[in-house]
Amino acid sequence: MSNTKSMTTSNVQLARCEPTIAINRTPSNKLHEIVEPVLISQKPKIRNWGGTFTSTPACLFQPKTVLQCCAIIELARRMGNIECRALGRGHSPGDLPFTQGWLLQMDNLSGLVAIDTSVPTATVLAGTYVSDMHGMLENAAVPLGMPNLGSISEQTIGGLISTATHGTGYSFPVISAAVESMRIICALDEAEGGTQVISCSRKQNADLFNATLCGLGATGLLVEVTIKVDHWFKLKQISEECKFEDLIGPETSTPSIATYWSADQMDEHTLPMLQSRSKRAALKGIQKAKELIGVNEDSVDANDGLAIKRPMSLGKLLAHKPHLVPGCPASRLPKYHTKDPSSIYPIDSVNSEIEKDELDEETRVAQSRLETLGQSSQHVRIAWVPHAGMCTVMRMNKTLEPIQAPGVFSRVYGRVVGYHFLQLLIFMSRYRPSMLGNVNRFAYWLTHPSRPSDPSESSVPAKPIAADANQKAITEDPSQFANGTFDPTRLGSSSSLNRDPEPLNPTNPRSVLVDAAPRVFNFDCLFQQYTNEWAIPLSCLGSTLRAMRDWLKEEEEISKRGGGEQVHFPVEIRFVDADGIWLSPCHGRKTVYIGIVQYRPYDLPIKYRSLFAKFEVLMRHFGGRPHWAKAHTCGPTELARLYPNLSDFLALRKSKDPDGIFLNPYVRRHLLGDLRAEASPRIFKSRL
Ligand SMILES: Cc1cc2nc3c(=O)[nH]c(=O)nc-3n(C[C@H](O)[C@H](O)[C@H](O)COP(=O)(O)OP(=O)(O)OC[C@H]3O[C@@H](n4cnc5c(N)ncnc54)[C@H](O)[C@@H]3O)c2cc1C
């Protein structure tokens, strides 16, 4: 796909026009005429960015106008309710954007519709790449920018919103929360007027609005989005290398849990999709665990012959007997229920105080240190390298300082060593898994500074970008800076925006980057990869990371004897604020995302299934919710426990799409529990 795909202003205005006559009254031959020019191919092979799924939809369309989109959906209805699915840029690591029906590749419906500098907001067509939006916003009469971003800007705005894509920031919600209004094509009942474009916002069709803010492409086809933006700004990122134990404390094998598991509990907690297999495995595992731990008759509960009660490090238990790790206790399940669908962000009464009393001292200290760290800057990201026992803490704040970006040498070094050489090493470790620990340690050493950087040595002024000239007006009056911030009341005063965070330890190696915000928010995600990412409650962060460290340490021990799980680096840890979006993984609770990757050197498969399965067990234990865009194994029963508003979402979805035009195998499998062959990820030739 090309890098830029925006239309000229007049074409955009034409493209966004709605059909002049009701589309459900247009004869089919006329609809065929409208659709034909944008039918690109039949049974093409489509692949996601990670190369982890391929699919062969019956037809691929590339609509350029709202009229063409409406005509495709209406034809699909008339031809027997053929499933229709929007494809953004295929950057979802799972099979969420795939269908065997009709695929609508949306990136030709792209371009800037309008900018309102007073709020400020930007209105764009839904297939616009976020990377193109940066240029559009910078070139506005008053230079503007996105208030927050994830690791990349390659997505379409429609795809980004549909999965509640997130960046990092204690007081920054998922990016969907910044959406002001949308236009969406719904496939309504004939009695309600059939296929039509519906506008929605907090004030108009608020339930459709809320559902579509993380709608997984299942509420309809997004054609236009108005989103709150910010005045153009630079970010200063200070990266600090520190020992991971300085953040989460020394190893003490806590948290530990009593290994207690009965057949009844198994029934209650096991994912229905995997129930029979897991239950059998668990019963066998319990028997084995009795032998392993050396249970005698006294430690077997008289009322429940299967019960074993003995404290054991949660991480170690996960390494050896993942099926003995309990699911999420009821006390940890989310309670927040969005009563008013227009209540998106900020929301009231977020309870993040649970469980602290139950924590051991080490974990309590770790939790409070991590919470303080999360609040020490506007955006805090932690990249942890488990094999090296090190992490990079990246803290970003708005700044008025001049640009300070990596010099040519650093960039070339980063490309040659941080990309090509690393890929070669990971490729070699495919054949000698035992070398992966050393590869990770070596790669960390090669790519991270071991001493504080001297800005005059390592940096050169970067080429100024278009908005830099206009920035002068802003820098002369810093108060303007705060005037346009996304949510000034939550960000604090303009003076606090520019203050550098205190170093965690003055002797830690540090490096500094100052640049236009997108260049600091985004970073090189290297090559293709399997990914797994979960959103856990912030209140469980200390416990989760401590258990995860124990687990990965134990796996490394096991790997010395052959076997064991080996995680690539980095493990990414990011903070996100609570919101009221029905299906947002941050719904109702302050959240931390924890993500792991397994790179696929030279596009080759690599071992990852058992690692991800154990990771999921740990995330589930702490009440985690999976990132929707990434492959996971949650079914509707579990999701209903994790999302108190799931039934609202499903009811709204059904009312706006009674014939199931916007369903696909992913949605049917995970949200509706449909496990027929055609809902299996294997039809997409996944490597899962
Ligand atoms: C290298 C990399 C880095 C990433 N970093 C992050 C990150 O930092 N944070 C994060 O949260 N995620 C991240 N992701 C995930 C990514 O942001 C999401 O998968 C996003 O949805 C991809 O956008 P897309 O345009 O490629 O959409 P696709 O993957 O093509 O589609 C995603 C979903 O959106 C739907 N959709 C797309 N367009 C429309 C439309 N117009 N109307 C209705 N539905 C639509 C699709 O049907 C599908 O259900 C990353 C992914 C990659 C590959």
Automatic annotation (TrEMBL):
Keyword Oxidoreductase in annotation: yes
Assigned GO CC terms: membrane; mitochondrion
Looking at the record, the residues that make up the FAD-binding PCMH-type domain are 53-232
Please state the Enzyme Commission number of this protein: 1.1.3.37
| First-tier enzyme category under EC | oxidoreductase
Q: Which UniProt keywords apply?
A: Oxidoreductase
**MF term (GO), any:** FAD binding
In which pathway is this protein known to take part?
Answer: Cofactor biosynthesis; D-erythroascorbate biosynthesis; dehydro-D-arabinono-1,4-lactone from D-arabinose: step 2/2
PANTHER family reported in the protein's UniProt record:
D-ARABINONO-1,4-LACTONE OXIDASE, L-GULONOLACTONE OXIDASE
- Tell me what this protein is called: D-arabinono-1,4-lactone oxidase
Species whose genome carries this gene: Meira miltonrushii
